Every structure is written in structure tokens, then in C-alpha cells.
Amino acid sequence: MIASVVAHAFLLVFMPPLLFGVINKTKAAFAGRTGPSLFQAYYDVAKLMRKEVALSATTTGLFVVAPAATLAATLMAGLLVPLASFAAPISFAGDFVLFAYLFGLGRFFTAAAALDTGSPFEGMGAAREVGFAWLTEPAVFFAFLSLSRLSGSLSLDGMLRATERGAWLERTAPLVLLAAGIFVVLLAECSRIPVDDPNTHLELTMIHEVMVLDHSGPLLGLIEYGAALKLFVLSVLLLHVMAPTARIAGWPGFALFALGLIGLSIIIGVVESMMARLQLLHVPTLLIASILSCGFAFLLLSR
Amino acid sequence: MPGGLFASEPLVLLLAAAGFFAGSGVPGLLLGWRSAWGPRIATGMIVLGSLLGLAGGILALRGDAAIVLAVPSPLPGVAAELAADPLGGFFALPVFLVGALGSIYGLSYWPPARHPRYGRRLRFCYGLLLASLTLITVAHDGIAFLVAWEVMALTNFFLVTTEEESAPARHAGWLYLLYSHVTILSLFALFLVQRELTGSFAFQAIANGPGAQGLRMAVFVLAVVAFGIKAGVMPGHSWLPSAHAAAPSHVSALMSGVVIKMAIYGLVRTCGLLASPPLAWGVTLLVLGAIAAFFGVVFALAQHDIKRLLAYHSIENIGIILLGLGLAMVGRSVGRADWVVLGLAGALLHVWNHALFKSLLFFGAGSVVHATGTRDIERTGGLAKRMPATATLFLLGAIAICGLPPLNGFVSELFVYLGLARAATTPGAAWAALPAPVLAATGALAVACFIKVFGVVFLGVPRSAAAGKAHESPRLMLFPMAVLALACVVIGAVPALVAPALGSAVAAWTRDPLPGPPLAQLAPLGWLPWLAVALITATGLLVAMVAARCRQSRRRQPGLPTWDCGYAASSPRIQYTASSFAQIITSRFAWVLRPEVHAPSSQELFPPPERFHSHVEDSFLDKLLRPGARRALRLSAAVRALPEGQLQRYIFYILVVLVVLLVWAIAGGPPIG
Known about the structure:
The structure holds two protein chains of two kinds.
Chain A: H1 2-14, H2 16-31, H3 40-50, H4 62-78, H5 95-116, H6 120-151, H7 156-159, H8 167-170, H9 172-189, H10 208-211, H11 217-242, H12 250-274, H13 283-301
Helix pairs in contact in A: 2-11, 2-12, 3-11, 4-5, 4-11, 5-6, 6-9, 6-13, 9-11, 9-13, 11-12
Chain B: H1 9-24, H2 26-30, H3 37-62, E1 69-72, E2 79-82, H4 86-109, H5 119-138, H6 142-160, H7 167-198, H8 213-231, H9 239-246, H10 249-273, H11 279-301, H12 306-334, H13 337-372, H14 383-386, H15 388-401, H16 408-425, H17 435-458, H18 465-468, H19 475-493, H20 499-507, H21 519-522, H22 527-556, H23 578-586, H24 590-593, E3 596-598, E4 613-615, H25 619-635, H26 637-640, H27 647-666
Antiparallel strand pairs in B: 1-2, 3-4
């Protein structure tokens, strides 16, 4: 029990930046480049934590609190999901609501900090962030309802074990729909292509990156690390839905699970390499498709 | 069981509180317009009454329901019955807390020196309103309820029209009065039908018997219409935004936080009395709740008057409360006690929570108006630097109303979600979980809306000269906000504290309670304090980690500008406005919002200066009700020609009716009375 909690915390704290490295390596491979090191995101965060902060005179204390609160919320969400066959460190009936709302708390602070600078570009980014988020929430809740129906459980830990007992063979269609829906939510929430381009350098077209233009030094370090953590947590969620991950018990399963997360990052990298970013006006259509996908899964399961 | 007055301490305390409230404005009437003592005496009496009332309400929550007082009434054969039971006590407590805090807030917000003309009337009606609210919660039959309700409705009208020289306030008042009439007429009908079913006006269970179906349906429909309009449930909500915006802010806080909850009380009470409800009723409430919650927040997003925006959020929160109540009704129909407990506990806790954070936000909005002189959030900005205490308290209220952890809004929404998820796992009942995704979208939109309000009002740089000269509010205005914010934090972090109150109110709801598990077994009350502590500690540690470095760098390079992407001529007007922030969402809902947009069309090579203007009024009122009313007026022109305003004719009509009645009575109709 204690060993598994320590392993959970270790993976949660140290693995996320690696996922960014894997995605960027994949993209580099597609483009025929060597690309940055797999560990570049670790170096970046370490560098930022040693740097000075430049604070705009417009900002208030909220600007400093926001990255910290967002990261704390994401960390707590990371404690609610199980890794491999080990139970989640925190698990109770209704923790899926807390999971979703912790991301809402993070969004509140990130977008408020963007408005704290008084910059039109950051306001634009914040407006887009909240303008798309309200379409991902229903998809997430349809997914949770479907999983709780499939597993009969009201906690994330139980829900994500729904695929453990051969559900993939009996309930293939709803699970495929769920996985597709959650994948789109992951791409949108983690600002990946086709919703947002993390590498873009034009403020007018960005969403997440433009909100954090004015953050610097350790504040930016917290944000970068928090973004990696969010990708990690949502990948864990998706991996549990995609595969019966809890079937292989113990440490071999745990190692396999970590490999699965890397595999998922490669898939994200492939998607990013093969697709262009959608026009902003078309993003809601994609997100509504994710609601429909998860909604149909719920419909199929509620027969 | 009518008994002596002193048989029940809670009732005595509650009635004493009502007495203090009703009398609080009277000394002020005898003093001069500009006297500072009128408000002080009124506030003192209201605070004293509230303390008595809080004690009474808490005792009532502990006790069991027993009718102890039957007041003889002028109507023959009818005695008004009063009682203090847990459900009434539950709804009475916010009256005392918000009422007293609002009165204290009003001392600084509406001092006689600045508003000499209407202050005395305002305080008199405020006290009377509080008294009527208290009486509504102890009324135990239709007659007492109606009397208290009508006093509430009329004092509310005078409070909405406090600033009677302003045309929008007068207009809001008339609109309110119109809707209020519909409510009271429906209530008359409701209590008459109830008397037909049970044989008396007293509140008692309405059993389902042969031949009673139609009348029971009438009771439910009338209750939904009457209380739905009063609570602002769509589509009967059109009076609410303008009325709550027109009243002085501390009165708006009471109206939005407490007064509309009396309609919820009426609905909860009526639903509890109707034994073994059919499934369709619960489903109706679920549908109405989902519509009110979702479209309430959509309309709120489109507003740029801070008080109208908050008023639309009340509609959203009423929707969330209805979702909980609907789930509880469905649970009764299908015999699931756990749905009843979670749904009703969620609804009731949200009643308290909304009273707390909505009053907090309206007080905050009042402070903004006080400091800048405008309700238009497009003319504010950067207030956090000038009024840091107000900004912090408003931020807490904003996080709470969005239902985000670790504050109180999250707890009540969690109960409702848990109940809905329990429906989802039940074979054959998955349809009952469908409001959950709607509630999720509503929550995300509320987050968007409050980022907009907080960001535009308090963050960035001032958009007008008045906002640049804003000042922090006086302590008497900050103190009530601090109390409410503290309550939000405490309920959010330690919900187990309110679990006993919720438990006894839920148990008192129906006369045929299902044997159900207690709330503590259904909801993770024990986990939430630890999570709140962990979240706040982690945030604190991370802030401490970077704060030292931030302070150090700020000392070295003061006054850095915001990164302007190389644009050299930055101005406050370049900031994102509230309307542009919400536009990405509101443009999707143009079909229901129907915004009035005046957009320039620059065709020439060198276009002249142009203005852009967009505004969202209540489309239900402007596009549906007004044209409908005009058509009805035209159609009824023939009938209206009949009276023509002559007193003699009216007397003649009365005489005719009297003669007809006499003939009917003598000729052997049913006995009257």
C-alpha cells in the first residue's frame, strides 16, 4: 500500500515533462529533424525556476497566486486517478466531480491572471479558453456517467477499473466512442493540435500560450510544469478507458502502464504531425462532436 | 394541536424577531429626514431581532413539528395556525443572517446624509419585509401564509422603487407588481383547491385518492406557476433582473439571496405535502431546473450591468436548486430514498449557499457602485489595486458561486451530482442522470462569467476616470462581506457542520419518509476538510516558493509595463472588454439572446468616426410577452369599452351581481360560507 502510493507520487511528480519530450521527439522524427532532447522539458523547468521574475506594474497578487493554485489543483486531481492496478491514493464516492471541478479551479485562476495584465492579447486567450471549456465539460460528465454505469461505482478509482473485467469484449462500441470523445477533450484541454498549437508564435492565433505571455521565471516554470502534469493526468484517464490496464497486477503492470503513457504521447505526436490546426471558428464543432461521442456511449450503455 | 403560546420556545423567539423587525423602521419615521439616529435604531433592532431569530431558527431545526398557536382570524371558521418546524427554521436562518448584515451594510451604503429623501421609507419597508419573511416560514396554513406573502410582495415593490425619480426603477417596479399579481392569484387558487382536497386551509398531507388526481395535479401546477414566477424560473423570470438591479444593493442582496428562496420554500413545502407524487412531476422540475440553470447563466454572460448580471445568476442557481428538488421528487416516485436525501440535501444546502455568496457578491457590487458611481462594468477596471479588501472578498464569492472547490458552492453541487450519478448506475433509470452534463456546462459557463466580472471590474487598468479615483469601502460595508465570505469558507471546508441541520430538514420534508441512509453515509463529508486543507497548503507552499523571488525582482525593476507585443501606444481602452470577452460564447446563443447591435458599416475610403454599441435586453419580455400583451389588448378592446371609468356604472355592476347572488342563494343554491 505505502509502496504503491510512493510509486504513484513519484510517477506523478517526475514523469509529466517526459511526455512533452516524447511528443516533440515524435514531431521531430516526422519532420526529419533530430529535435530537442527527450528531457528538454525538465531542463526548461529547472532553468525557469532559477530565473528572475519580471512583473508588470498592472498585476496584483492574484498574478503570483494563480500559477500556484492551478498547479496545486492539478496535483490533487492527479491523486484521484489510479495508476495501473494500484488504487488511487484518494478515492471516495463523487470524487469524479472534484476531479472535473479542480480543472475548473485551475482554469479560473489561469484566465483571471491573464486578465490581470490588462493586455488585449491575454484577454483574447482567456476568452477563447473559457469559450471552449464549456463544451468539453459536458463530454467529460457524459464519460463519467457512462463509466459509472459500466462499473457501478461512484468513484474514479472504481470507474476506471470498468475495463478490467473483459468489458472491452462485451461493450466495445461504447468504449470506442468514449475513448474518442476523451481523446478530443485531452487535445483541447492540453492545448494540442488541432485545437491549439503549442509552438505557434503569433499571439493572435494562440489560446493557452497567449494567456501566459507575461509570466516569467519561476511563475512560468510552474505553468509549464502544470501543463505537463495536466497532460499526464488526462492521459492516465484516457489510457484506462482505452485499455484494460488494471488486468496485469503489480509492478509489471505498473511499468507497462508507464510505457502505455509514452505510447499515448507518441499518438499525440503523430496527430500533431499529420494535422493542421483548425480554424478557431471550427473548434466548437469538434468539441460538440466529442459531446456527441460520449453522449452516444452513455445512450448505448443505458439500454 | 393548538396550545398555549409559550408551549414552543422556537416559535416565541421567531415571532419576537418578527416583532422587532416590523417595528425597526417606526422610530425613524418619527425622526427627521436627515437624522442619523433613525438608521442606527433600525439596525440595532434588526440585529437584536436577528439574534433572537437565529436562536429560534436553530431550536426549530432541532425540534419536531408541532402546531402550537392558532390565531383567530377575521374570516369565519378559519384560525391562522403558526408553527416552527425544521423545514421552516431552515429557510428562516438566512433571513436573519442576511437581513442583519444588509442592515449594517446599509448604514454606510445608504446614509441619510447622502440619500435623505427615501431613507425612512426604505428602512420601514426593509423591516416590514424581514418580518413578513419570518412569518412566511412559521405560517402553517393558507390564510396566514397568504397574508405574510402579500406583505412581502408589497414591501418588495416599495423597495424596488426606492429611487422613484428614476424611470427604470419605476418601470422595474410595475413589472414586478404585475408578475406578483399573477403569483398571488395562483396562490389563492392553490389554497382553495387544497382546501377542497383536505377540508381545511391548514398545511396537511394531500393523499392520493380516487377522484383526487385532477385536483392534485392542479395543486402541483399552480404551485409551479406561482412559486416558479416568484423564484424567477424561466420563462417567468422577466421581472427579476430589472427589479434586483433597481433596488439599492443591500436590498438586492436580500431579494436575491433570501426573498426568492421563499418561493423555493413554498414549492418544497407543497411538494412535501403532496403524498406519493407521480413521476411526471419530478421530471417537470428537472426539466425546468435544467432550462433555468443553463439559460440563466447564458443571459448572465451577455450582461454588462453588474447587478443585472448577478440577478441572472440567481436564475441559474434557482435552476440548480430545482434540479435537486426534482431529483428528490423522482426519488419519491420510484422509491429511492438515497436520491431523495442527496437531491433534497443538495437543493437545501444550495439555498443556504446561494444566500451567502449571492449576498456577498451583491454587497461587493454595491461597493463597486459606491466607489465608481456606475453599474456598467465596461467603465470600471483595475479596482483590485484601489480596493484590495473588497476585491479579495468578491473573489471568494466568485469562486463559491462557480461551485469550485474548496468553497461551499462545490458541496451542494456535489450532492446533486452524486444523486444524479446514483440514478445513472440504476438499471432503467439512466435518463434521470441527463441533467448532469447540463449542470457541468452550466458550471463551466459560470466560471466564464465570473472570470469576466472579476477580471473586467477588478483587474487590468481603469477604463474611466471614476474607476481610477475609486476608494476602498468603509469598514461597515466590509464587515458584512467578511462574515459572509467566512461562512462560505467554513461550509465549504467543513460541510459536516451543516449536516445535522440538513438531516432534520430533509426528515421533516414529507409526512411519509422513506427509510433512507443518512447524508453522512452517502456523501464524502469526512474527506472534504482534508482536501481543502491540502489544496490551500499546497498553494501556500508554492506561492511561498516563488514569492521571495518576485519581491526581490520587483524591488530591482519597479514599474515594468505589460508586454504589449511591440505596440507602442497602449491605452486602457485597448483592454478586452466584458462584451468582447463573452462574445465567443454569446454569439452562439444569439438566437435566444437577441442582442441589439448597432455596428458601423464603413464603406468609404476614409470613414468618419463611428460608434459600436451592443446590448442584450430580456428577449422573453421584449420579443414574446410585450407583442403578445399588445395583441391581447387589441382583442379585448371591445370588453374594455364596457366600464368606461364611470363610478355609477361600477356601482350598477356590483348591484347586479349582488341581486344575482341573492336570487341564487334564496332559490336553493349551496349554502355560502
